[in-house]
């Protein structure tokens, strides 16, 4: 009878634990990260009673386990990191796309307005009203470039803030993980059972961490979890954490980088996944490129318009002055440099510039210039200047030499949109005319003709000196300076002329084309375009810049270049949106699969309640019967 009571008691105890566990599941049905727990019960060892054989001694709880699938949990964690990166990146790229393509805030409409104004100027070069439209259009475009650059710079600041906040969260989660590792080890001390709720809490912390950055985990024999980020950089090992910090970039003070606290190395280039990966990917793949592209557009606009403007003549008969002023390339020395060499960069050919920043490094007595967009080496040498892609890199060692490992970041156009300014202050300064005028003498008897001419070197002091081209025969001519008619100066003599192909004459910074069949004695003149207020030749050249290949190795005009920039951003927006949708679906599926295994089903738990309640009542009934039998024996013994 004692054995019957003891067996019944074990049933009561197991049923009680089953009820407690089921109640725990129901209470935590909505707890994030909670895994359903089950009571694993086994029969106790039987007792040998002699010839009758073995008699059972009841039941006991082997363990209370959590329903957990390691693979599914890791899948959810991995998909979460990727989904969060894409979500963060997609949102930020969408902001850039909206900024650049907005018809009311973008650059493209105002760029077209300026070229339309130049076209109108070519139709009425002396009109003050038309000139006013040109200046207003130019100023509006400059203002818009400044505004867009300011917005991009604000976005850069927002990225820095996001990185700081995310790193703070990562450090907090890492500390919590190290703390819970310690609690798990203490709880498991001397026991083979697992502290299920602590393990769930740790998994949930890892899930939260994967929203911030991609993680990899390793579970040690003592039950602690080590967490690694990036390409294997440690964040948590056992009870210890490796705290991260945000520090100013070694190159650009406008950017921040991620590094280990203290004197630890920067690890930004290794980090992917989560919000942190999204911020870093957006900055390196989209923001830097967009700001540099906008700067390249500004530099290209200023350079091409200035080239044409300074070859022309303004309304007061003066040679044109620069239409725009623009900045110069930015050179940033690494804060890790040990040498004292100073590096500067200048633009030698804006049309040859590429859509890239550059890194200049010094090792073993050699400077190496690397284009960062494709990591190709474009120039090298033991000293400066180095030239490539429209840049000239000067290296000044007068104050000290470079040291091995020294590096410099060169940003040819990053601040181009910020620095561009309208240089003209009056409508009369617009150079719509050319400073030279060509013509044929009225007494010419041949069919020869001279072009309207163009300026090849505006700096030539003799540009507007009167010159005559005098044919000495049908196949030869002289070029004569007639600034002093009484004492002409021979500039070129007996120049060969082929009537079938014509000839080009280069002199005094101008260029003209001769054609037809001049006769001996025919004269053509090139002179100062005094009183040429109605001349529109330079205005036509300004309007022609709309379709002139002035950018990216002289392969793209300004409008087409900006269109390509918008297309790139648009393609990124679409690609990220598609990838985000797909990744969200994968995450939802993985989460559903995990929850199907680990989640609490209240209907199932209600059934378990009934099952354990009935088991408890049945065991109690056995206990009651055993008690009645025992009382019967006592009554017999008392007789």
UniProtKB/TrEMBL annotation:
<feature type="domain" description="Flagellar basal-body/hook protein C-terminal">
    <location>
        <begin position="598"/>
        <end position="635"/>
    </location>
</feature>
<dbReference type="InterPro" id="IPR053927">
    <property type="entry name" value="FlgK_helical"/>
</dbReference>
<dbReference type="InterPro" id="IPR049119">
    <property type="entry name" value="FlgK_D2-like"/>
</dbReference>
<dbReference type="InterPro" id="IPR001444">
    <property type="entry name" value="Flag_bb_rod_N"/>
</dbReference>
<dbReference type="InterPro" id="IPR002371">
    <property type="entry name" value="FlgK"/>
</dbReference>
<dbReference type="InterPro" id="IPR010930">
    <property type="entry name" value="Flg_bb/hook_C_dom"/>
</dbReference>
<dbReference type="Pfam" id="PF06429">
    <property type="entry name" value="Flg_bbr_C"/>
</dbReference>
<keyword id="KW-0282">Flagellum</keyword>
<comment type="similarity">
    <text>Belongs to the flagella basal body rod proteins family.</text>
</comment>
<dbReference type="GO" id="GO:0005198">
    <property type="term" value="F:structural molecule activity"/>
</dbReference>
<keyword id="KW-0966">Cell projection</keyword>
<feature type="domain" description="Flagellar hook-associated protein 1 D2-like">
    <location>
        <begin position="334"/>
        <end position="412"/>
    </location>
</feature>
<keyword id="KW-0969">Cilium</keyword>
<dbReference type="GO" id="GO:0009424">
    <property type="term" value="C:bacterial-type flagellum hook"/>
</dbReference>
<dbReference type="Pfam" id="PF22638">
    <property type="entry name" value="FlgK_D1"/>
</dbReference>
<dbReference type="GO" id="GO:0005576">
    <property type="term" value="C:extracellular region"/>
</dbReference>
<protein>
    <recommendedName>
        <fullName>Flagellar hook-associated protein 1</fullName>
    </recommendedName>
</protein>
<keyword id="KW-0975">Bacterial flagellum</keyword>
<feature type="domain" description="Flagellar hook-associated protein FlgK helical">
    <location>
        <begin position="94"/>
        <end position="324"/>
    </location>
</feature>
<dbReference type="Pfam" id="PF00460">
    <property type="entry name" value="Flg_bb_rod"/>
</dbReference>
<dbReference type="Pfam" id="PF21158">
    <property type="entry name" value="flgK_1st_1"/>
</dbReference>
<keyword id="KW-0964">Secreted</keyword>
<dbReference type="GO" id="GO:0044780">
    <property type="term" value="P:bacterial-type flagellum assembly"/>
</dbReference>
<feature type="domain" description="Flagellar basal body rod protein N-terminal">
    <location>
        <begin position="6"/>
        <end position="34"/>
    </location>
</feature>
């Amino acid at each position: 009878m004692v054995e019957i009571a003891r067996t019944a008691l074990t049933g009561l105890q197991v049923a009680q634990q089953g009820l407690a566990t089921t109640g725990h599941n129901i209470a935590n049905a909505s707890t994030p990260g909670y895994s359903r727990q089950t009571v694993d019960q086994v029969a106790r060892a039987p007792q040998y009673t002699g010839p009758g054989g073995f008699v059972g001694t009841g039941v006991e709880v082997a363990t209370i386990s959590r329903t957990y699938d390691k693979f599914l949990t890791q899948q959810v964690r991995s998909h979460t990191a990727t989904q969060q990166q894409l979500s963060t990146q997609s949102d930020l790229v969408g902001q850039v796309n909206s900024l650049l393509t907005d018809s009311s805030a973008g650059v493209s409409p105002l760029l077209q307005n300026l070229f339309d104004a130049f076209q109108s100027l070519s139709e009425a070069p002396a009109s003050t009203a038309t000139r006013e439209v040109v200046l207003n259009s130019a100023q509006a475009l400059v203002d818009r470039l400044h505004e867009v650059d300011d917005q991009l710079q604000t976005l850069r600041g927002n990225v820095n803030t996001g990185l700081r906040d995310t790193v703070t969260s990562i450090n907090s989660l890492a500390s919590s993980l190290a703390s819970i590792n310690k609690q798990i080890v203490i709880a498991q001390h001397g026991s083979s059972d697992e502290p299920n709720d602590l393990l769930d809490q740790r998994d949930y912390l890892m899930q939260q961490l994967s929203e911030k950055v991609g993680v990899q985990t390793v579970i040690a024999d003592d039950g602690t979890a080590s967490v690694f980020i990036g390409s294997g950089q440690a964040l948590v090992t056992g009870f210890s954490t490796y705290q991260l910090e945000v520090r100013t970039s070694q190159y650009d003070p406008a950017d921040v980088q991620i590094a280990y606290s203290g004197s630890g190395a920067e690890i930004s280039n290794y980090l992917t996944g989560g919000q942190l990966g999204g911020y870093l990917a957006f900055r390196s793949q989209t923001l830097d490129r967009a700001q540099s592209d906008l700067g390249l557009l500004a530099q290209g606009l200023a350079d091409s318009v200035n080239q044409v403007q300074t070859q022309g003549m303004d309304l007061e008969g003066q040679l044109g002055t620069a239409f725009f002023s623009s900045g110069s390339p930015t050179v940033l020395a690494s804060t890790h440099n040990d040498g004292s060499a100073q590096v500067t960069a200048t633009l030698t050919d804006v049309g040859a510039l590429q859509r890239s920043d550059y890194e200049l490094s010094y090792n073993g007595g050699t400077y190496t210039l690397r284009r960062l967009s494709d990591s190709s080496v474009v120039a090298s040498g033991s000293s400066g200047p180095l030239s490539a892609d429209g840049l000239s890199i000067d290296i000044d060692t007068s104050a000290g030499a470079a040291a091995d490992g020294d590096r410099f970041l060169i940003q040819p156009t990053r601040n181009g949109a910020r620095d561009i300014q309208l240089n003209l202050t009056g409508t009369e300064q617009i150079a719509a005319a050319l400073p030279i005028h060509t013509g044929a003498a009225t007494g010419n008897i041949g069919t020869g003709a001279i072009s309207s001419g163009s300026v090849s070197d505006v700096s030539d002091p003799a540009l507007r000196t009167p010159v005559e081209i005098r044919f000495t025969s049908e196949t030869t001519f002289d070029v004569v300076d007639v600034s002093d008619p009484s004492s002409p100066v021979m500039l070129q003599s007996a120049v060969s002329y082929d009537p079938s192909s014509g000839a080009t004459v280069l002199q005094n910074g101008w260029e003209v084309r001769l054609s037809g069949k001049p006769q001996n004695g025919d004269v053509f003149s090139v002179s100062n375009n005094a009183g040429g207020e109605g001349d529109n030749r330079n205005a036509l050249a300004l309007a022609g810049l709309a379709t002139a290949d002035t950018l990216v190795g002289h392969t793209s005009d300004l409008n087409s270049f900006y269109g390509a920039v918008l297309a790139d951003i648009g393609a990124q927006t679409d690609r990220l949106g598609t990838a985000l949708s797909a990744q969200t679906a994968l995450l939802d599926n993985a989460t559903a699969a995990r929850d199907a295994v680990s989640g609490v089903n209240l209907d199932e738990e209600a059934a378990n309640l009934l099952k354990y309640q009935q088991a408890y009542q049945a065991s109690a009934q056995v206990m009651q019967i055993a008690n009645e039998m025992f009382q019967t024996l006592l009554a017999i013994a008392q007789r």
